[in-house]
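Supplementary Methods. Inverse-folding protocol.

Structures were first reduced to a discrete structure-token string of length 337. This string, shown here, constituted the complete conditioning input.
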């Protein structure tokens, strides 16, 4: 039988280092794939191509599944983010970002017990890329929220909650101020909730949500929200459970799925061999589950729990001194038993 094809974008900065670590761990589980290496990010820009070249988008469209390292987006200069371009082109409308306390991992909030999944809209909002300057001293950005976009996202969140045995879905919004745009989102959330009477549904204003997350994060379960709020709230949740080095993500659409860490290319530590590959590794765990490879996914997830929980061989962001390679070796030792 031919191997399953998976698109792979190593990305920029720490991307190639953490991607190599993840491939070593996947290999150790016996997972076999034909990795199709694709270009995206700075490498493409330097060749005069868009950050997410059309050929890469087409290849992922055909393959249907991708693992992606972080890509750098140069500030200004008219460069469209590789991520925004990919999510829009493939209509990967749901960005799923779990944040769960790893027992033993030290952090500012070590005593909290967080287990949330943020479902962030991925194609609309202020990320629609509609910006202009009607006057040299004025810039405007348009927030786009559509009824079909809200409907499919909210239904996705309830559906995912039901499949994963979750009890509650909370909508995050600012409908008290943005009465039309966020009002539309809230209206569709409430309509979706009616279709899932077995799941508790409620909503919260985004600023209060941030405060509640810091003071009483245990109360949240699944959270669904628009693009900008989701971007910020998911980084907050990542910080609550030990930092960006631990936070995985998946971009899901009707016809494709791209798995990537929440964090960026971390140029400040690129090439130093000290990046934490856990976020991308946990994204690969989500990918394995998406592919039905539950045993391999569970083995890696258990290894992460053990190694991070023991805290002996962890990277600097978790208070340790291990290099990326040393941490990866420790994970592999657990995975192969
Ligand atoms: N999905 C993506 O590809 C993605 C996401 C966010 C940002 N970016 C891009 O990445 C670039 C850098 O962005 P930034 O500096 O704002 O955010 P960042 O997430 O790259 O880094 C923020 C901080 O977290 C640390 N960090 C991040 N990942 C880490 C890891 N795995 N291990 C240890 N420490 C880690 C960094 O060292 C840095 O101090 C920008 O060009 C941005 O546009 C890409």
């Amino acid at each position: 039988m031919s191997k399953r094809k998976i698109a792979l974008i190593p990305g920029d900065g720490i991307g190639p280092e953490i991607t190599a670590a993840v491939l070593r761990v996947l290999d150790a589980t016996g997972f076999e794939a034909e990795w199709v290496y694709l270009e995206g990010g700075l490498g493409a820009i330097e060749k005069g191509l868009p950050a997410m070249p059309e050929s890469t988008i087409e290849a992922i469209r055909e393959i249907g599944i991708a693992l992606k390292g972080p890509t750098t987006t140069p500030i200004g200069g008219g460069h469209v983010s590789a991520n925004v371009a990919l999510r829009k082109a493939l209509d990967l409308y749901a960005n799923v970002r779990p944040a769960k306390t790893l027992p033993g991992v030290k952090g500012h909030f070590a005593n909290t017990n967080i287990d949330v999944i943020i479902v962030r809209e991925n194609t609309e909002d202020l990320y629609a890329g509609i910006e202009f300057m009607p006057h040299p001293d004025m810039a405007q950005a348009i927030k786009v929220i559509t009824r079909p976009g809200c409907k499919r996202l909210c239904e996705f969140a309830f559906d995912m909650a039901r499949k994963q045995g979750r009890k509650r879905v909370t909508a995050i919004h600012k409908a008290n101020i943005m009465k039309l745009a966020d009002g539309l989102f809230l209206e569709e959330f409430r309509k979706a909730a009616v279709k899932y009477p077995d799941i508790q549904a409620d909503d919260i204003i985004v600023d209060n949500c941030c405060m509640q997350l810091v003071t009483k994060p245990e109360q949240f379960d699944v959270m669904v929200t628009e693009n900008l709020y989701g971007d910020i709230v998911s980084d907050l949740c990542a910080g609550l459970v030990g930092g960006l080095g631990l936070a995985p993500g998946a971009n899901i659409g009707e016809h494709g799925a791209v798995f990537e860490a929440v964090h960026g290319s971390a140029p400040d530590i690129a090439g130093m061999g000290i990046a934490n590959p856990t976020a991308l590794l946990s994204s690969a765990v989500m990918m394995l589950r998406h592919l039905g490879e539950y045993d391999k996914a569970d083995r890696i997830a258990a290894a992460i729990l053990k190694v991070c929980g023991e805290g002996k061989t962890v990277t600097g962001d978790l208070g340790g001194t291990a290099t990326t390679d040393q941490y990866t070796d420790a994970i592999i030792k657990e995975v192969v038993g």
